[in-house]
Amino acid sequence: MIGAAGSAATCLDSSQADVLTVAELSFSSEDSVFQVGEELTYNVSYASFDLGQVRIVLIDKTVRDGSVYYKAMAYIDSYKGVPFVNLHAIYEDSIHAQVYSSWFRSRHKTDHGWDYFAYTYAYPRGMMHIEQGSWGTGNVIKRDSLQLDTLYQDGLSLFYLARVNVLNRQKMNIPTVVNEKKGMTVIDFKVEHTHDEIDAVKYPIDLVRFEGEAGFVGIFGLTGAFEGWFSSDAARVPIIAKMKVLIGNVRLELMKWKRANWNPPRYVEARGK
C-alpha cells in the first residue's frame, strides 16, 4: 500500500534488481520541460491523409501542501469532412512535479453532448476514485474505484514523463490508467541520436528516438507499439510520433508551437562525430 510519500511510479526493466523511486530518477531542472504557457500543436495523418490535430497546453503551476503541481490540457479534434472519423475530446490533468498524475478528467463529444470521466488519485489510501457523467448537466452516471499500489500515469501525464526521461538511457515499466483500466506502458529510452525534417521547419532537426509498447487501449483504439522522436535539447519537445490506432498506423508531426525562446535544434552533420 502507498504511504504518504508514495512509492515507485516507474521502474527499470525486470532484468535489473533495483527499483528506482520517482525522486531517485535523473531529472533535469523543472523548467527545461515544464514551461507554463507552452503550446504544442500536432497534425495527425494516416498515409497521405490528414485526420486531425492534437494541441497540448501547459496551463499553470501551483503549490499545494508544499508540492508543485502543473495543469496541462490536450484538445483532440478530427478535421471536418474526414470520412469515418468524427472525434472531439478534451483532457485535463494535474501533474505532480515528480511527474505522476494526481487528478485527471477526459471529455468526449457524443451525439447528445459531452460525456466525461474524472479520476481522483487518493494515493495515501491506495485508491483511485472514478466518476462518469454528462458534462454541464450535473448528471453523474456512475461512481467506481480502483485499488492502487504505486503512483500512476494517464495518457497526458505520460506525455510529460517521456519528455523528462527521454535522455536517461533506461527501459521503464510505467503503471498507467487509461479508460478506467490499469495497464503497463513500456518505453525503451535508447537515446538513439538521429535527425529528420518536418513541414513546419526548413532545416533538419536534431532528434533522439525511442520506442515503446502501450499496454492499454486508449482513444480511437490506440494500443501496441509506438515510436517517438524528441528534440535533443533541454526542452525535449516531441517532434514526431508514430502509433497504432483502429485504422492503422498514424503519424503525429509538430506543426506549430508557442514556447518562450525556443526553436527546434538544428542538426549539424559534424555534431558528436
Rounded to the nearest angstrom, the distance between the terminal CA atoms is: 49 Å
| Spatial strand arrangement across the major sheet | 1-10-11-12-13-14-15-2-3-4-5-6-7-8-9
State the helical fraction. under 10%
* Helix and strand element order: EEEEEEEEEHEEEEEE
The percentage of residues in β strands lies in over 45%
Structural class: mainly beta
Radius of gyration: 18 Å
Largest sheet: 15 strands, antiparallel
The total of beta strands comes to 15
Q: Structurally, how many domains make up the residues?
A: 1
Low-pLDDT stretches are: 1-30
| Secondary structure tally, helices | 1
What is the mean predicted local confidence, pLDDT? 85
Q: Categorize the overall geometry.
A: globular
Summarize the structure in short.
The protein is mostly beta strands and 273 residues long.
Task: Describe the protein in words.
The protein is mainly beta. It has one domain (about 10-15, about 35-260). Helices cover about 5% and strands about 55% of the residues. It contains 1 helix and 15 strands; from the N terminus they run βββββββββαββββββ. It has one helix at about 155-165; strands at about 10, 40-45, 50-65, 65-80, 90-95, 100-110, 115-120, 125-135, 140-145, 170-180, 180-195, 205-215, 225-230, 240-245, 250-260. The chain has a 15-stranded antiparallel β-sheet with strand order 1-10-11-12-13-14-15-2-3-4-5-6-7-8-9, with helices on one face. A hairpin with a 2-residue loop joins strand 3 and strand 4. The longest helix has 11 residues, at about 155-165. The chain is globular.
